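Complex 429.
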Amino acid sequence: MNVVIIGSGGREHALALSVSKSKLLNKLFIIPGNPGTGKIGINILIDVNDSWGILNFCLSNSIDLVIVGPEQPLIEGISDILSKNGIKVFGPSKEAARLEGEKSFAKDLMKEYGIPTAAYEIFYKDDYEKSLTYLQNIKYPVVIKANGIAAGKGVVIAENYQSAKNAVDDCFLKHSFGNAGDKIVIEEFMTGQEASIFAITDGLDFILLPAAQDHKRIFDGDKGKNTGGMGAYAPTPFVDEEILFQISQKIVIPTLKAMRDKSANYSGCLYCGLMLTDEGPKVVEFNCRFGDPETQVVLPLLDGDLLELLITTANVKINKNSVWYNGGSSACVVAASAGYPDKYEKGKVISGIDIAENDELLVYHAGTSIKNGELVTNGGRVLGITSVIKENNLKLAKQKCYDAISKIHFDGMQFRKDICDKALNKNSN
Ligand code: AMP
Ligand code: GLY
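Predicted structure with adenosine monophosphate bound:
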């Protein structure tokens, strides 16, 4: 098979690595890819949002499957454009991608089908005064979310009325998120451990991949601003067999049914961002694609043939026996540029990757590029230093990760020191 992967981050590097091991693969292209994916397949310089450019490339290169990494092209309908032209796609249609693209759509759907999630209210731009009155009469903290996608910046946890009002002002008065903030969801604050679960589904049938835990805040102890994700590990001990069963029964099955009922069959990866509350798992958010950096730790824990899983899913006949958990564990620490998630500089020379990498240690590229023959930083999240070990031993996985990161250098490199700690502290309790 000839395969295209769309995207340029660590997630796409991980997808490329797993797909490259498939016995079904002939040629692998990554659009646009990064220096890491360039070692595994052929990088093609087309913008990820240029659906027609991507379609033309696929038609002239006999592409059998397109795997879409980021949400934006999915929300804009790349799956529909490619499938209408005879190209198979792993990733949901525009209608189904609304589960991520419009938070109010996802919330209303969950309410209608009794899928556990935080209680909420929706307000439109014209309801400004009404939203403030509502905020004066509720318990804090409360969570305010821009309805559309806002590059991970559209969610505010407000401790009091003033910060809630600031968040509403950002959306409705300052238009900080453009149209994405013309509508907001105000929801109840939930407490518990967070977990990320990928359901791979053809719309009817599905499998759950090993559960991961992301670390979204920039600093240790979950302090500071939200980021794209500063590290992850899998499997997370917070999700046991009983919780997995609840996730299947109460969240994944009814969500897929709801989407079928609405003639928006969901096919691809349904990313369930969950809060494991005292009342059971509840949905924080749905994403319409693989998570980043969770993918970097989940895929190396699968034996079998990932490409077989993805093509059978795209053919609406998922082969659930294509992959299985290999019993290992994995931890990924993101090395980020100084200043991230705010302003940061690019072009810092990166060294040490070759000495850090070994059989149990992978370095995924995310924000890197080649300049004058040297590998340099080219983004906020630069590398994903990732250990993969054969036994389920997160303590060892963490240690191998941090041993490796001490060998890697670029000016201003910052990273969290506490990836895996929630799981390790749980085990010692
Ligand atoms: P989201 O973009 O919806 O995943 O939100 C980003 C982060 O905000 C989540 O990973 C949670 O840590 C936090 N968050 C979002 N919604 C809630 C909620 N209702 N209760 C508590 N934390 C939340
Ligand atoms: N790791 C969070 C996300 O992919 O949205």
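The chain has 14 helices and 24 strands.
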